[in-house]
Amino acid sequence: MDKKELINSGKVKSVFATDKDDEVIIEFRDDMTAGDGERKEVMNDKGAYNAVISAKIFKVLDENGIATQFVDLIEPNVMLAKKLEMIPIEVIVRNIATGSLVRKYPLEDGTKLEPPILQMDFKADEYHDPMLNDSIIKSLGIATQEEIDILTEEALKINEILIEFFEDAGIILVDFKVEFGKDVNGNILLGDEISPDSCRLWDSKTLDMLDKELFRKGKDDEVMDAYIEVYNRILTDEEKVI
User: What's the DSSP call for residue 105?
Assistant: First the structure.
């Protein structure tokens, strides 16, 4: 399917129209960013690894009853997807306390969170993605209470599925963020991506980081090795396209 006009260009992905009103093409670029885009590098094949990993995870979620925008992986770094009007909320699920959570609250790094913490942030770089609550969300007109409840329920289901999925690959799902949007019929679907860019992943034996946190910590030379390790662990030989 041919790309049409550019609809949106984000920090690491570009979205193009197609000849169908309800579908888009998402191109995963090799850009790596941190700090609301203040730090930026380019890493060879990073976009392709994230796209293939996301496609695999979306397929797993779909098989387990989670509706996503994923349609097909048409090139290693290019995804065909249902067109969504994105809801400007990042839904974050935390299974282990680390990162900003231990900087802001009296929690010890590495504490297992039972039940997991679910957090919603306003997706807006200019406001530095502040934390939301139900009242703020409704005051901003971002979502109704019914929609908030759907986002919560879906995110927690995704967490249950992915904990087991990554556990089978020898990986701990520390935390992750997801985004949702509405399709042309108003249905809420999981969108964007789920990849080492949007998850904290630790090796279950060594607790080594296998995600974007390496880039945030300035360990640029380790980033792609970690992404490739995740790719190799969760895909079968038949599924590998890079």
Answer: S
Q: Which residues pair with 199 in a beta bridge?
A: 176
Given a contact cutoff of 8 angstroms between Cβ atoms, the answer to whether 198 and 178 are in contact is yes
In DSSP notation, 135-198 reads HHHHHHTS--HHHHHHHHHHHHHHHHHHHHHHHHTTEEEEEEEEEEEE-TTS-EEEES--STTT
Among 82, 103, 133, give the residue marking a domain's end.
82
Predicted TM-score of the model (pTM): 0.96
Q: How crowded is residue 158: how many other Cβ atoms within 10 Å of its Cβ?
A: 22
**Confidence at 239, pLDDT banded by 50, 70, 90:** very high
The residues with which 144 forms a beta bridge, in sequence order, are none
Does residue 24 sit in the same domain as residue 144?
A: no
* CA-closest candidate to residue 200, choices 174, 182, 237: 174
What pLDDT, on a 0 to 100 scale, did the predictor assign at position 1? Answer: 67
- Residue 146 in tokens: 């019914």
Residue 213 maps to a domain? yes
β-strand partners of 122: 89
Specify if 112 maps to a domain: yes
The structure tokens 């910590």 sit at 217
